[in-house]
Design a protein that fits this description.
Layout lengths: L1 E3 L3 E7 L13 H20 L4 E6 L3 E2 L8 E11 L3 E10 L4 E11 L15
Antiparallel strand pairs: 1-5, 2-5, 3-7, 4-7, 5-6, 6-7
Length: 124
Amino acid sequence: MEISSTRIHVSSKMCKTLDVGLRRTLFGGNMMAWMDEAASILAHKHTGEEAMVTLKFGEIRFVHPVKEGHIVDFFVDNVKVGRTSISFDLEGWTDQKNLVVKTSVVFVAVDKNGRPKAIEKFRR
């Protein structure tokens, strides 16, 4: 198992008018979609696998509201690569330097039939 404790910037998103609700803050469902996209980017880039699927997200903590015009930067840490899966912590921070969301994530490599397969790049 490979373990990395280096914080990695994965992606950024800008909160636009269509992303917010009545209180002019980002809808939680939009944030969850952004998180899944950022997690997918990390899983694919870190493993080199073509087919990585979301297995699970841990408890999602919405820490601070995101308002229209804010940029959310997504970072991962504590990356662990197993035989078929990759897990890590995911955080979103605004350009105002506020932690806005945090969770843990697990992705699994799958074959063409959707069954778990060994991650080739890290096969020993």
